[in-house]
Amino acid sequence: MKNRALLLAIKNGLETIEQYALKMGISPKRAESILKQEAILTDDEIKRNCEVFGVSAAYFLCEIE
């Protein structure tokens, strides 16, 4: 699923898969899948990313610029 997780993680100093996984409360394997845009995100994962990075769901999911 297309998302801005990688861009937002880097902008916010989360430079490794493990750092992102810890911040999101998910496994490193799941984090890698999200960062590579291979995962189908759950509503909770979308909400958590939006909360952590302070962005809207539409922005996070690349629906708006």
Ordered list of secondary-structure elements with their pairings:
Elements (H helix, E strand, L loop, with lengths): L4 H7 L5 H8 L3 H8 L7 H11 L3 H4 L5
Please tell me how large the radius of gyration is. Answer: 10 Å
The number of helical runs is 5
Instruction: Supply the CATH architecture.
Output: Orthogonal Bundle
Number of domains: 1
Q: Biggest β-sheet: count, sense, barrel? A: none
* H-E string: HHHHH
Q: How far from one another are the termini?
A: 17 Å
Give the overall silhouette.
globular
How much of the residues is beta strand, in percent?
A: under 5%
CATH class: Mainly Alpha
Could you please describe the fold and organization of this structure?
- By secondary structure, the chain is mainly alpha-helical.
- It is built from 5 helices and no strands.
- 58% of the residues lie in helices and 0% in strands.
- It is globular and about 30 Å long.
- α2 packs across α3 (28-35).
- The model has no long low-confidence stretch (mean pLDDT 97).
